[in-house]
Task: structure prediction
Amino acid sequence: MNIPQLDGLNLIILYPLLAIYKALVFIHVPHPLGLSIILLTILIRFVLYPLISSQIKASKKMQDLGPHIAEIKEKHKGNSTMISQETMKLYKEHGVNPISGCLPVILQLPIIWLLYSVLINIVKAPNLVTAEINRVVSVDFLKLSTSLDQSFFFFPLGKNPAELFSTMGPIVLLIPIATGVFQFLQSKMMFSPPQQQNQQIKKTDDFASVFASQSTYIFPIMIGFFSYTFPVGLSLYWNTFTIFGIFHQYRIAGWGGLSSLWKKK
Amino acid sequence: MSVTEPMRKITIIFIDLYQRVLSYFLKNILGVSSFCRFRPTCSEYTKTAIKEKGFMKGAYIGFVRILKCQPLYKGV
Result:
């Protein structure tokens, strides 16, 4: 059950990860595997940067236009062609360019998935992983001569906080808490303040509107719980991913809904 | 009743679930708060199509719509 599998599509991620790892080992940097995970995640986010930037820009403008769109919907109730025509006209007037669409953004999903599946395998029993890597990798200088070093500061990357709780005590709870908090910050920045939205959106569906206003809390809490039972190496990846996302969001759209936390009226 | 009638109902339930819950999770994972260039959104459009034209035709119409959501398609 715990046999690592790293062949097939996983190689797309495994090769760059090993290249970074070997480079770090070569210059004697401590905690090479953990740092490789961080560096590879950052590298991938940089590659995806332009794809997501245009989308964040368009999202922000669309969110700012939310009240106008609600107006249009109210005015042309039931006439969906009219609604979409007027909406498009509004976008054009305000220079929103939703030209890219969602597929470029969704391209992220397979990459997120591949990173997940490589990392969940690479933090398994070190000698098994090392053997598996040397089996699937065909480039000689990327093969491992010594066993993969899975320590990262105080944490073994292959263990999850639930397992570490008995030996390390409550300090391991910092991992799920940090993961949840970062996710919350990003979520809060992305979605505009709920009180603003609720005025505009008619409460046609109570569950949907309650969920919409609570969603900034639900997902981060879920992610926090997940990270309690996932290997530390994966939390390292996900947090790097989220923190980069927070910076990205900030650079393009500012603090967004997060500013409502300190601008309480 | 057509053979695809249960399919139609199940798909509509799934689209509802996606619209109310899963789309929020997806947006959180992808780090983008809204990504629809079309109005109505693809999920809403597909739901209506499946409701009106049945599962096979509706799903096809929705699928084609989603494929248009990329930079190479210039229309609105």
Summary: Chain A has one domain: 8-264.
